[in-house]
Amino acid sequence: FGEKTTTTAPPVAELHLHIEGTLQPELIFALAERNGIELPYEDIEELREKYEFTDLQSFLDLYYANMAVLQTEQDFTDMTRAYLQRAAAGEVRHAEIMMDPQAHVSRGVPLEVCVNGVANALATSEEDFGVTTLLIAAFLRDMSEESALEVLDQLLAMHAPIVGIGLDSAEVGNPPSKFERLYQRAGEAGLRRIAHAGEEGPAAYITEALDVLHVERIDHGIRCMEDTEVVQRLVAEQVPLTVCPLSNVRLRAVDKLSDHPLPEMLAIGLNVCVNSDDPAYFGGYVDDNFEQLAKVLEFSVPEQATLAANSIRSSFASDARKAVLL
Ligand code: HPA
Ligand code: ZN
Asked: Which residue from 17, 104, 168, 223 has its CB within 8 A of the most atoms of ligand 1, so it is best to mutate?
């Protein structure tokens, strides 16, 4: 689990990755022990039994609960280095990593601790693992815009090394328009803007994220397929959609991988790429996603190459880095 020795995946950029979603059960137990935290599970096996999700919220409940073991800067650094090592083994050459600052600040971990802990690992990712990285602060859409604005201001004041902002957590009932001022302020600060939309929420949320939040990329976006006008626009504007096939299956956004819309999305000219989302929770890293896509949906080598090239082109990497990777 979490180990990888061989891969058939092409070199890619991972653009949709929550660093807290890379916490493997083994590391959860190791950090709990190190920090003297009592976990509500006897052992790793009992924890693993909780990884049967019925929807997004059932996953989020476990995802937030497990973050309790993240206490020190070193904890965040260790988690991030573990991801980078495993991602590099799976052909990830560039990663744009989201973190959820509010999920840590709200349980008493100082903002500097969580941000510096992740940033310390990213600072040497190219030398250590051959992976260039960028950090994105994601805001929890089931919290208030005031809370998000407060944390954004603190991130800007401390000159946190973030390239942009994202929007995640419980989607339905928390539309993009709730965060108009947050995205405006981020834009004024020169930050790139992305948002989850159209995972569990309707296609209209994708349109709202584009028109109200002015995002450059949509995380997930699969429910665009329910609205031809939205699809036509996304094709025309070549808006990148960071699709996460194994995540969609595990969170029951699609029934089974063989029903996933990705083949059709690619065929009709949407700018799609493949990502892992929360690999410790959804049964695989990017290369595992590619492997399953090849096996179950019979993605050809040229199709896989297109998905990989899309990921690199859709990244916020420098033109020089993109040229190396393409
Ligand atoms: N969707 C929404 N919020 C999230 C996710 C996701 O897949 N992973 C972590 N936070
Ligand atoms: Zn996500």
From this structure: 168
Over residues 200-254, the pLDDT tens digits come to 999 999 999 999 999 999 999 999 999 999 999 999 999 999 999 999 999 999 9
Instruction: Quickly list DSSP for 135-194.
Output: EEEEEETTS-HHHHHHHHHHHHHTT---SEEEEES--TT--GGGGHHHHHHHHHTT-EEE
ipTM, 2 dp: 0.97
Q: Is 18 in the pocket of ligand 1 (CB under 6 A)?
A: yes
pTM, two decimals, is 0.97
Encode pLDDT of 130-144 as tens digits: 999 999 999 999 999
Distance 323 CA to ligand 1 centre (A): 30
Q: Tell me which residue has tokens 């802990």.
A: 117
Strands 12-18 and 92-99, how do they pair?
parallel
Whether 150 sits among the annotated catalytic residues: the reply is no
The third-level CATH classification (topology) of the domain covering 12-315 is TIM Barrel (3.20.20)
Number of H helices, E strands in the chain: 17, 8
* Domain ranges, ordered by start, for the chain: 12-315
